[in-house]
């Protein structure tokens, strides 16, 4: 494959971290991204350079470009944590070389050369050779959400209680978890922001779907908690909603924060519950999980490909936005509910 | 021993729990306690009736009488979680009978017949026959604080880091922990509310003692945290002070709440730290620890008696208040720093 010397991409405006909380979807991308041309990077010894076919946008990407994520930004480099494409060149490491020419799902991780560009760099270990039966739309969103879903559902399964609670119930991630839960007879309780999402999520397997904006939300929540006794709370939101849910949960409950969609203050309403009810608060980060449970990664990746191939899982597509239109269209596409937005270089 | 039919005691005014947070020391005792006479109770089969010589007042007692503790109040029964006295009668259980006539430290636990009265009821298993070398002032405060100190220092020791942080550094409990820590080469970092407490606590073995009221407190805290890298935070306070400390602590820190002296809102300043820095928030309750680690109780009790006998530990006495004067004097005595207040029936 002949490589050009330059490539187009959506480049980071900021550097490092930001102290200012920002909205979960910015009203405009200009403060965070600018389109530009930069030199095509060379992969390191254990890395692959991938010609990107399609890249996805996750909430963690938005947190990253706004400086709210757990990794520092490098100004002028392309953003985008994951995508799908063809391996165009590799380093000298034998495993990296074995990927040459293959179609892979990839996560850019700490390479600092993200997926919202014509070419991206990823560690070979973070590239997954794909079955032909996996669509580009599924492959481009196959790592961050599906592996997080499998890892977090593992936590639910180990806790042993059938019922568990999730905020942001209509997110792609939660839908994946609902699918896993239904299959094994677990009872997800989810919160949503729109009534029309309720039948959809119940259809997928949610035991209860509560509208957090409803006037009787807290009363409905207490009733459901009393009946179902959920002890795991997978939380993408924090802020007042999450505080209320944790407060209503029974003894020995665990509030597991994996996202921060609400920038409002997160209050522990009754710290006495930590003491007398043995409740606790912790976090989940896929990168940390992969460090701690390396042996579970291979099986999880295979499981994800099978599920996307046979249709048990399927990524809902809100929009596929060409790279050139991204600055103008991303904000309006990202606020639409229920599906995923992709960037097509 | 001939038993009277009636006894005097400080009786609970409230029933069950209260939803209203109250000050760590109430301005008056009347809303919570009233002096009165009631029938001397009969011990159950596995219980002992103790003629109380001296009873202590812990922060957990105040939380209990105001309805903020993890156990419900029973209106009209005496308050008081621990004390020292002579076993006046027992149930028929052989171990209970073996305690007859002995001087014991006792915890009333769930008996609902507390120590702030002429007679109290405790499970025989919660009575500790005393060495003659242990003073009444030490024996009356030998269970709640010393066992909590030994149990929480165990958590510090297991974590492995030399440095750890404690709020309410001048409390009896923290002084006990500082003593344990000094002996094993650990480095306690404590917060206090008065400058004059600083040399005292450094003398006992605190590596750093910071005045939380000082203008440069947060800067001083950051500097100490950077130098010492503490990962365990034993917190009696919650509220803004505890939030600031947890926020300043490094990766993988654990905020362990065991008290709620500040009724102000407890905010998780940066929930992202739970995700990306693997920090977590949990609670400690002696009753829960005793349930989980039954085998550690006997050795801990023996260790506590030895320390009080040979002078390594010693309870600082603020006041010994006769039962008849308690209603009038307790509030003013309890606000005095550095020592413990006792009730003498």
Structure in words:
The structure is a homodimer of 345-residue chains. Helices cover 31% and strands 25% of the residues of chain A. By secondary structure, chain A is α/β, with parallel strands linked by helices. In chain A, strands 3, 4, 5, 6, 7, 15 and 16 form a 7-stranded mixed β-sheet that branches. In chain A, strand 15 (317-322), helix 12 and strand 16 form a beta-alpha-beta unit. In chain A, helix 4 crosses helix 5 and helix 4 (144-159) crosses helix 11 (297-309). Chain A starts with 5 loop residues before the first strand and ends with a strand. The A-B interface holds A 68-71, 238, 257-260, 265-268, 271-285, 288 and B 68-71, 238, 257-260, 265-268, 271-285, 288. Strand 13 (266-268) of chain A pairs antiparallel with strand 13 of chain B, so a sheet runs across the interface.
Q: How is this structure best summarized?
A:
2 copies of one chain form a homodimer. Chain A is α/β, with parallel strands linked by helices.
List keywords for this structure.
homodimer; 345 residues; alpha/beta; seven-stranded mixed beta sheet; six-stranded parallel beta sheet; 16 strands; 31% helix
Topology readout:
2 copies of one chain form a homodimer.
Chain A: E1 6-12, E2 33-39, E3 47-56, H1 59-65, E4 82-90, H2 94-98, E5 103-107, E6 119-123, E7 127-129, H3 136-139, H4 144-159, E8 163-166, H5 172-183, E9 187-192, H6 197-204, E10 208-211, H7 217-228, E11 232-235, H8 239-248, E12 254-257, E13 266-268, H9 272-276, E14 280-283, H10 286-292, H11 297-309, E15 317-322, H12 326-334, E16 340-344
Parallel strand pairs in A: 8-9, 8-11, 9-10, 11-12, 12-14, 15-16
Antiparallel strand pairs in A: 1-2, 3-4, 3-6, 3-16, 4-5, 5-7
